[in-house]
Amino acid sequence: MDLPTAGLLGSQLQSICSGSFFLVFNPSLTLRSRIRRTSLPHVKFILPNASIINVHVPIAGAPGETQLPAWWDPFITDGIRSVWAGKDTPINDVEGFKKATANLEKIIEEEANLVAPGRVILGGFSQGTVLSLAVGLENTKVGGIIALSSSLSVPDSFKSVGTTDPSTLKKAIFWAHGTADYVPINWATQSIDYLVNPVGFKKISKNEAPTAGTITWSSSEGLKHETNEEELEDIQKW
Known about the structure:
Elements: H1 14-17, E1 21-23, H2 29-37, E2 44-46, E3 52-59, E4 62-69, H3 94-112, E5 120-125, H4 127-136, E6 142-148, H5 154-157, E7 172-178, H6 185-199, E8 202-205, E9 214-220, H7 229-237
Parallel strand pairs: 1-2, 1-5, 5-6, 6-7, 7-9, 8-9
Antiparallel strand pairs: 3-4
Helix pairs in contact: 3-4
Family: Belongs to the AB hydrolase superfamily. AB hydrolase 2 family.
GO molecular function, one term: carboxylic ester hydrolase activity
Protein name: Acyl-protein thioesterase 1
């Protein structure tokens, strides 16, 4: 279930982020500009970038190796599979994933000392989503997670699969995915289904008010492996 690229995300989260900070993975120039225009002096934005590493991905339809910004090597040699494997299959690049989670946990630990518990929001796109969920779902310092164009890795996100940590359902999640994304949208919907049952989250629409223990779901018709203004506006409202 590994994904081939690192993530990007940016938004204005005034209602939830008041007195906290918001993590963003690999924001594009457009999103960086959007963040610069944001007048939220009480919010600290942290924008870490994935390093350029060797990754195994299809090239011209054949297995290949190249260098791309990525949090870990996805080892996708035969293309993206239509079936979500994240319920049972952990990340292939164990060392790369371990390094990525350690880096993120270090940032959270340093910054959480400056704010009240639960005032940290994680956000990710593609691999950034997998990473945010893996680090954030059982971290007591994290109050919310934004997940775009990706899925959940169950074995990498829960210390004890089948047992819900008390802090997990104290978080709110915003999850969005495009219907034309090369990462199949069922990867996202099946991940959410797992978080609903057995974990215990409640799935709601973007028109409903988010609370602890809810997953706000939004799909964008025709959207590929990217984000757009509508999606960012939905995040802002959330």
